[in-house]
Structure formats: C-alpha cells, structure tokens
What does this fold into?
Amino acid sequence: MFDRTDRSFVSIWWWTIDRTVLTLTLLLSIAGLFMVMAASPTVAIKIGYNEWHFVIRHAVFMIFCLILMLGTAMLNEGMVRVVGILGLLIAIAMIGLTLVIGAETKGATRWISLGAFKIQPSEFAKPCFAITCAWLLSMWREERHFPGWIFSIGLLGLIVLLLVLQPDIGMTILFVMTWALLIFLAGMPIGQVIGLAGLAPIAGYLAYVLMPHVTIRVNKFLNGTNDQADIAMESFSHGGLLGVGASEGVIKKHLPDAHADFIFAVTAEEYGILFCIALIICYIFIVQRGFAHAQTSHSLFRTLAIAGLTLQFGLQAAIHMASSVQLIPTKGMTLPFISYGGSSLMTSGLTIGLLIALTRHRQHSMASAKPDAAKAYAPDINNSSNPNTASDPNASRDKGEVYG
Amino acid sequence: MKIWSRLIRLISDMPAAEARRVAASRLGVVRIVALCCFCAIGLRVGWLAIDFSSEAKAFTPTIEQSVRGDILDRNGQVMATTVPVFELYADPQEILDPREAAAKLATVLTDMNEETIYKRITRDTRYAELAWRLSPKKYADVLRLGVAGIHGRRKLTRAYPNAMAAAHVLGGVNKDGQGIAGIEHHQNTLLASGTDLTLSIDLNIQAILREEISSQIDLFEAIGGAGIIQDIETGEIIAMVSLPDYDANHMGYIADDHRFNRATKGLYELGSTFKVMNTAMALESGVFAETDMIDVVSTLRVGHHIINDYHPEKTNLNVAEVLIVSSNKGSARIADKIGADIQKHYLKELGFFEKTALQLPELGAPLIPSRWGRAEIMTISYGHGISVTPVHLTSAIATTAGSGMLITPTLIKQSQPAEINVQVFSPQTTAKIRAMMRRVVSHPRGTANKADVNGYLVAGKTGTSEKISGNGYDKKANITSFVSVFPANDPKYVVFTMIDEPKGQKHSFNFATAGWVAAPVAGRIIQRVAPMLGVHPIDENMPEIRQSLMLNLPELEKEGAKHASF
It folds into this structure.
C-alpha cells in the first residue's frame, strides 16, 4: 500500500499500527452490516418504519464510526490522554444531564435527544474512563505521592452512582470491571484482590434484592423460564451449521430488539453456527492481541490503558454472546461493531481507535520529530498534590523504558 | 500529611517499572481467563447446535407470551377468553390484477365494499391492512380465493362470547391485549400472568337483568338505566348492568355515553331511597322510636327554602309511616333532630364518603356538601344534596336491611363471607327497617305496590329525583330508582333498578315516577331470578312470617288489612 521508505505522516502511521486488529475490525463491520440487514427489517416493519430504515442508518453510522476510528488511531499518546480526560468530563456532565432532561426508553433514562439522533453519553464515557483511570493509576505508581488510586475510586463511585440512578446495570458492570482490572494490574496485593472479589457477590445480591427488574431476569434464568433466551437458543439449532439463509429466519419475529440485543441469535439462525464460531474467533484474536500489546508495552500508562480498552471491548462481546446462549441471565448489551445503534457503534470505533493509537510501535524518526512525551505531560506533574515533584529526579521515570 | 501518604500507600507501594512488570505477568492470567470465556461460549454454541438438531428442525414458537387468563362467571361459564385470529394484509407490489383481487376479496370480506378494498390494495406501500381479526374459517376462505399478495399473520385476540351481557363489568382490551377498561384493566396483572379469574357475576341472571331494564327503558322512552343484584350477605355483585352498553368485542369504536358505567361511576341524587338510612339511624341512635309522631302538616321552612311533600299529608304521621308514604317533610324533621354528627357518622360508616372498593377502574367519588348546615342535614335525609353511585346505595341497603353488618361490594366470587365484622346497625333495627320497607310494597299507601311479587316478600323503597341542570333542578328530567331486598323475612339479595329520564306514557297515566317505572321492573326481575337463585316462594300469612314482619302499629296494620281486602 505504502512504500516503507515513504516518510509521509500517513505512511509512517500505516507501518507502525497493528494492521491485524484494523483488518479484523473492518471485517467485523462488514459482517455487522449484513447482520443488521438480516435482523432489522422485521423490527422496522413491526414499529412502522420503512424496512430498510435501520440498515440505512446503520450504514451511515458505520461510515462515521470508521472515520472516528481512523481519526483517533492517528493520535499520539499525549493527545489520547487529553481526549480521554476531556471526553470523560464532558460525558459525566451529560450523564448527569440525562437524569434531568433524558428521554425515557423502556423504564430507563439513558439517552439525550439531539434532533433525529439520541445519544447515550454513558457509552462514550466508557473508553474515556479506561484512559483516565490508566493515567491516574500510572501517575500514582510514578509519583508515589499522587493519590491516583483514591481519585480513581472516587471517579468510579461518581459514575456508578449516576448509572444506578438511570438505572443501567449492564453499563455499571462494565465500568466496575474496567476499574477492577486496572487496579489489579497496577499491583494490588493478592490478599486485597481476593477481598475485593469477595465484594462482588454481595453487590450482586444487593442488586438482586433491591432492583425488581434484576430480580425478574435472574429468577427467569434460574427457573429456566426465560422466554426470550429460550427462543434465542432455538435459533442455534434452527440455523444449523450453515444457516437458513439471509433474511429467511423466523425467530427474529419473536425477539425484542432483534437488531441490537439479540443480533447474535439472529445471525446464528440465518448464517449458521460456523459463521458464529468465526465471529467468536475474530473477537478472540482482537482481545488476545490487545492484551499482548498491553504486556509488551513500555509504559505503565500504556499497559493499563490498552488492557482497559481491550477488556471493555471483549467483555461487552462476551456478555452479549453469553446471554444469547443462556450462559448468564439476559442482559441487554450490544455486540461491538455488529449491533445496530449509533452510540454503541461510535464507542466501538473510539475504543479500537484509541487501542490502535496506543499500540503503535515506536518509530525513532517519529519520536525525534515529536516533542518528548515526558514533556508533554510535565504540566500535569506540576499540578499534582506535591509541587516539589517537578524537580524530583524521579520525575523523569515516567518513561517505562528507563527501567524496563 | 502522614496519614495522607499512608493512605496513598495503602495498596502496596512500588515503582512504576515494577508495577509494569507485575501488570505484564498478571495480564498472562487475564489472557487465559478471557480465552476460556470465549471458548466456553463457542463450545456452548456448538453444543446447542448438536443438542437440538436431533429434534424437529422446524421452529415452533412453543413459548408464546403466556396466554391471558380467562374470565369466568360464578358457575364457570366463559365470559372472556383468548382465541386465535388472523391479521390479513396485502402487499400491493405482489398483486397482479388489483381489480380482480378486490372483486374476489369483497365476496369474503363482507364488511368492506369492493371499492374500499381496491383503494387499499393499490396504495403505494408494502403493507396494506385488510382485516385485523379474521376467524380461522374466514381466513381459510380468503386463502381459497387464490389471490397473490395476500398474507395473514396468526395472533391471539380477546373474545367475549356473550358480547353485550356484561360489557361494563368486563371492560375490554386494546389491540395489544392489555386491559383498558373494566375488570380487564383492574385485574390486568393477574390476567396477563395467565391466571383465570372467577367473577361473582351469574351470566343467566345478568341476561335477565339486562333484558328487563332494557325493555323498561324502551317502554318509557328513557335515555338509559342501570340495574344491580347483590348478595346481601357476601356483598357479591350477582348481576350489574348499565344501559346503553356496548359489545365488549369492539371496545375501540364505542361512544362515550355507551362506555359510561352508570352503576359504578354515575353520580346521582338517589332521592327518597335515602330515607331508609335516615330511618335506620333515627332508630339505632335511640333518638326516635318507630311509634313517635312527626309533624308533617305545618310548613317546614329552612332559610328561604320550603320543604314540600309529593302527596301533602292532612294528619301527622309516625316514624314508620313517614318512610312508608315517603314524606320529605317528616324525614327532614327526623334528620333535623338527629343532627349532623350522627348523620355524618352513619353515612361515613356506610361508605357514602368515598369511592366503593369494587374491582373496577370506573368508580365515581361521591359529591358531598362541603358545608354541613341545617339545610344539608334535611335535604340529605331524603337523598338530595348528596350524589352517590348506585353501588354505594345497594351496599348500604345490604347493610341497613340485612344483618346490620357492614357490606362491601365485590365482583370476585367469594368462597367465604368477608372477615371484617363491623356492626353498623343492630339486628333489631334492621328487622324493623325490613318490616317498613315491606309495607312500602305491600301497604296500599306505600309507593311501590307495583313491585310486589306473590310469595317473594319484596321489601323496597322508591326514589324519584329531578336531575340537576345548570343551577337548579330540571322538572321534566327524572332519575327514578327502586332499591329492594327479598324475601323480607330472611333477606338474601338486594335488587336495584334505575331508569334515567323516563317520559310519562299513556299506560302509566302520564306518570314517570319511580313507583310507575323503576318498581314494576324490579318486581318482574325478582319474579324471574328468584327461582334461579334458589329462593322459594312462601306464604306471607304463616304466623311466624307475620311475626317476623310485625310492626307495633295497630292503626297501620288495621288500615292495611282493610285495603288489602279490597
């Protein structure tokens, strides 16, 4: 595509990014277009739209999503951090706003209406939270005096509070899991990890007792009387290895939100089990590559940020698919790059875009051409709790490779 | 500061480089866990495919939404059920010859003409609705026409086999099968969960009540009416009708007047029927005995208002006679002496101050005076200045002319009598009230002679009131009502009839009062339903029966005997 000797910005960018992840993502997007094409006409007709209503919108969102993804993929580390922190502040303000002026859909206020579009700010907050948390925790390890973990837990508490008010349990789980992974990776002693893990069943039980819709979902799962999931499960047998053919499926007529929360089941019926397995392998590759990058990355910030983004991406896919096959109680969650939904699609693009940006391998020519990353966030250090850190010789330790 | 830095180091303390190495090794664990999760999903997908493939391949939606529960009458007859129907629609793009198709379809879809069908199937759309609930047979007929581009979708719909019989009790559902009126709405959660519901209604009795009230409305050219039959002991509504009514199968297209439930939501000044309660509280409170004489001759003036009687009396009457001949003046004088506190106490106990507890969304909240002065005390004694629903009245009468225990109305079949025991009136008082109400029907000076049915000892009270219009009363528009219990010696049921705005007829000598309109129909209803309700006719002259209906008023008895022989 580009000559390796070409020194233009785009060319350098192209040769330093993880092209496997990019390719897999594009493959998923194309598959998603076909899957929405299969699942959505029934839903559209059911609620009185033109049958291609969702397909057209999905295609438009997809174009914006890819632009957003490629755009963020070109950011450097400093810019990623700025985008993450600013994005999170804006998103939190908007989540707060949903509680005041939000549009209520199916008993929860998660959306803000912007004319023809509704956006779900908690979706955008997700990758920004991973970046911000990674920054706070890496600062804490680097600066020693910076109370990063306390800030991160406060941030998490604020977001969880807002989400529980909406209420949005699925999103809450994603945020808590992201934070838990990051604090675990940032070196929390094993004893504390076990103690923290012990809190999970307690929180789960509280949600089960205090939130009626959680009670219903979990009871349905435990009693095996989960109508939606039973129907979804039949789609796997009905579809067989190769599926019944595009738009030939019947099960989508019996599922709510077939084009979003149950798209995996619809896919199974129409395109078959082999296609589903291929999708799963796609996700496995992206997730494994993401974590591998996190392992080999040269700074703690990058390690944490990449791991957080990868976790969000993988966990969301896993929860969606596991709900469809009734491994876990039904939890409405979209399948990244596949499910219909503007906010979800944009977030998937943002997540992978940030991931690609952070996983670029270093280029000497670029590193010398750009201002050093250490200088880029030196002002942050000055603003931290201890003003003396700027002159602290340890301040230069922010580059992992000095030690690693 | 020390505490702060200790807090920062609460979760270990290590340099960034070490933390990064820890992270890298821990990520190894994370990668394995992630791989296991995805593999588990993959295996599950594969397993589902293998596990189910041995079974039938065709998808059958075995688990539809749980089917809405049936509504049954007290004898188990179906009042509402869920049946399969077909939604018929056309895809105009698939129709080859719209003219021919419309002509063919018109032969089966009889409620649309050919032109209407043609217009629909030539619209620029992929979906043109033709019928939204076609019976399976009709659907088969449509398929047999062999018209291309016509499609059907099977779905479930609510059906009411006795279309009109108890429309206001049942209410109805919307297109999505959710209750929007009547018991379908009130008990929506229960029914939606698939549970059957047994009502207190008896469909056979219901049919008779509806038929009789309806024919009386026609006979007197009235605008509407209502009827209630209630079990005096359990409060169960055995039958309840409000006319005009509607076909519950077509709830969506009904005019408001037809949807309006006069029996439970309509608020009326029910007139002289309130004298029963007035008399009962006079006796129960001990302020009066039935033999006490009341001045009904001299003019009774409250403020600028003069209270008159329909039939002015020349001599004074005792308390019992005031009820029997229905004297407004007498009732007002009694109430005046009872006073507001006692009156309010009993009316409140009898449930006249709030909505009834009936299992319907359509309930009227009584209109009671905000200021309870002397004028209000007096007018309320004969049922003016207080507007209540018919169900309020029947339940209050069930208490006042029954055992004296508080009775609350219900539409759900009761397996045992209610547990709440509130004694409002003593059995002695209610026995006297029944004896007096019996005289209203049997005594020649009573106002409801036309309600008498041989052997069933009907005891009742008429009420005629002018309808409120604007600031005053409309002299020509009456609400005529009659509330009764039978048999008087051992009451089993309360029967209420109400005819709204009857016009005087030749056969009624131009009268349009309750005695001529509401009372006779009650008599006919009792005659027809009593045998079905297991009430046997008895001889009123048997000594123990006479004893139970005795009033210690020799003059009244003598006069009654004299007239009775004539």
Q: What stands out?
A: The two ends of chain A are 34 Å apart (CA to CA). Residues 19-46 of chain A form the longest helix (28 residues).
